[in-house]
């Protein structure tokens, strides 16, 4: 082992660029006073600086993906499940312009685009009692898999499980689709395998509900040592405002970074 290789295994070592090293070898970060370098092991080609909170970061574009979560009719359309449950589906629709902007940027940069969404079995054998109860607190309330005017809630093949029209037309054949059966996009899916085999380390997260499926997916990404970045104005929720505020706070303090779609678009070359 060379001296340089040994040095890259030292946690909190002083890095060659003057930063403080986090983790080791290919997964290391370098913490500086005014930014965090997420890919110091890469050459400078393709590096961008993002003006994020709690701290700006530098990363390599070729290992980034945009992850869009649950932008489905049951959450975002009139007559869907959110609407039928007495919640304001229009609040979920507030994420749409931001998701569209994020998609435009991702396409321009050649990033992977990953669509994550609920697609439950019609017989509901994929769901246990705790999950069923979390969405049906009263006998009269419509739960997952039960009939609404447009079909069964979040069931594979149903109208409610389809992507909203505004985004459906923007999907491409080469995009990655992940069908999930829990709030988190990682639980019981092949999302982790897809990310690792394609060399994706940094996830820009968008969609609904920010305080449920987006946040649990982001937390699971963080637990697996992915670099998690929340696109604040490309997310929304039908929950009270303080729920979204708590997610943004915890993202900045614990799980990763947050920024707006304007900041996402205006990242600058790093040299």
TrEMBL record:
Coiled coil: none
Lineage top rank: taxon: Bacteria
GO MF annotations, alphabetized: hydrolase activity
Keywords carried by this UniProt record: Hydrolase
PANTHER family, per database record: FAMILY HYDROLASE, PUTATIVE (AFU_ORTHOLOGUE AFUA_2G08700)-RELATED, PEROXYUREIDOACRYLATE/UREIDOACRYLATE AMIDOHYDROLASE-RELATED
Protein known as: Nicotinamidase-related amidase
Listed CDD domains: cysteine_hydrolases
Signal peptide: none
Ranges for domain Isochorismatase-like: 65-263
InterPro entries documented for this protein: Isochorismatase-like_dom, Isochorismatase-like_hydrls, Isochorismatase-like_sf
Pfam families attached to this UniProt entry: Isochorismatase (PF00857)
């Amino acid at each position: 082992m060379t001296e340089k290789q040994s040095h890259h295994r030292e946690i909190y070592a002083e890095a060659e660029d003057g930063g403080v090293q986090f983790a080791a070898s290919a997964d290391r970060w370098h913490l500086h006073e005014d930014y965090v370098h997420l890919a110091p092991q890469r050459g400078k080609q393709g590096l961008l600086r993002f003006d994020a909170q709690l701290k700006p970061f530098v990363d390599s574009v070729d290992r980034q993906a945009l992850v869009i979560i649950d932008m489905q009719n049951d959450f975002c359309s009139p007559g869907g499940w959110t609407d039928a449950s007495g919640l304001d589906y229009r609040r979920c629709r507030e994420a749409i312009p931001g998701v569209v902007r994020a998609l435009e940027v991702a396409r321009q940069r050649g990033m992977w685009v990953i669509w994550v969404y609920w697609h439950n079995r019609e017989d509901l054998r994929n769901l246990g009692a705790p999950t069923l109860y979390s969405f049906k607190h009263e006998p009269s309330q419509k739960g997952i898999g039960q009939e609404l005017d447009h079909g069964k809630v979040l069931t594979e093949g149903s109208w409610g499980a389809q992507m909203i029209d505004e985004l459906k037309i923007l999907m491409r054949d080469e995009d990655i689709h992940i069908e999930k059966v829990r709030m988190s996009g990682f639980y019981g899916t092949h999302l982790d395998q897809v990310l690792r085999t394609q060399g994706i380390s940094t996830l820009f997260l968008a969609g609904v509900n920010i305080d449920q499926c987006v946040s649990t997916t982001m937390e699971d990404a963080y637990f697996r040592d992915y670099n998690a970045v929340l696109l604040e104005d490309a997310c929304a929720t039908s929950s009270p405002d303080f729920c979204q505020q708590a997610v943004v706070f915890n993202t900045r303090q614990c799980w990763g970074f947050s920024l707006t779609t304007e900041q996402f678009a205006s990242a600058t070359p790093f040299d």
